[in-house]
């Protein structure tokens, strides 16, 4: 056996969770750890792009023909995934052993805490991999412990949580602040249910970005920050072939995007994306469309094909007809190449954690327009703690109006405050690179994880 360790990686099967775990896997593989990613059959079927050096094997969530979309409810999906997932993960571990590749560690997404039981059954080492920020994990921890009583009753109620700046009720993750998200909140809180039984808690963040909260959480769990998990060419360049995540359920319109960007002036473009899941209300989509148009800036906007029908009537046609080539709407783009492009001057983002870390790593100022989940907390940190952007405020209906969007873009791209934000982005970009570069905080944590892994013998 040429590898001294073999990690079986279990992501929750959505793009925003697979991307960071895949990147972490590549990093481990470059350090002579064998990797197998366990992906659900449905996720594998939906993939539009697959080019990755790590090996991928199928397991089942019990819904092979439709994944979560086939399940009667979210609760039913999670319950069946636990049953069928535990069995098919066990079978995979046994198959890999028979093939001569025994596993000695499971790295699992804590959305799927049953993986710990599978690891214990086979006597394997075990690590949880949190795909969201340490700050957000800390908030869920306090809900888990019953310390944070929710939902907050008053709109602007101030909330103090150890390790965090004071936040308001509108800054907590949406699953915490809206009672109707009880089932989702249960899953997020359950992330902590098996943590005392495992060897490591890995977090896709970096120490310098979340110092106080990482120190606080480290008193509770064996935390290692190992991020940002971005393809290496955008950060430390130690893996020269690592240019893209390489596994996507959407097909990027790479040539269209890059050709268009190549024709735009430096720092002139607003790049707009809401990630892989967010669905905007039609009214919000309309406000955004007019906000972008009225800003008078050039924009590259990712509107997934399932969202396209919500665009204002004739919006796309008018864009195409306009002689000044102001805007391009695509169904998916190579986001890292776009953020790195010299024409891009601002990222209007939903503040999904991957997008936030990518903007930080590539030094792009943000207009934060959070929608749900962890995004409100990330937006708060972007605006008030890291000072890398401004948050577009919602009105009493929960919508961000066109004037607000226009104003935020202007602040970031034209005003004095925008210059300060730009300076800060340079600082954070440098710190992100230092963290993953040789001897940096995340690099040391990964090294320690791998050294320990190599001492664990196969059962
Ligand atoms: O046109 C696009 C748009 C996005 N991306 C990539 O898709 C990922 C999107 O991830 P993220 O920004 O985290 O957004 P979501 O897809 O919405 O991710 C989900 O998972 C994240 C991690 O748990 C959470 O932080 C989010 O709130 C949750 O919605 C990123 O790596 C982007 O680079 C592309 O490659 N092309």
TrEMBL record:
E.C. no: 2.4.1.-
One GO cellular component, as annotated: cytoplasm
Sample GO molecular function, one term: quercetin 7-O-glucosyltransferase activity
Listed InterPro entries: UDP_glucos_trans, UDP_glycos_trans_CS
SUPFAM superfamilies referenced in this protein's UniProt entry, alphabetically: UDP-Glycosyltransferase/glycogen phosphorylase
Leading EC class: transferase
Keywords: Glycosyltransferase, Transferase
UniProt record similarity statement: Belongs to the UDP-glycosyltransferase family.
Protein name (database record): Glycosyltransferase
The species this protein was found in: Nicotiana tabacum (Common tobacco)
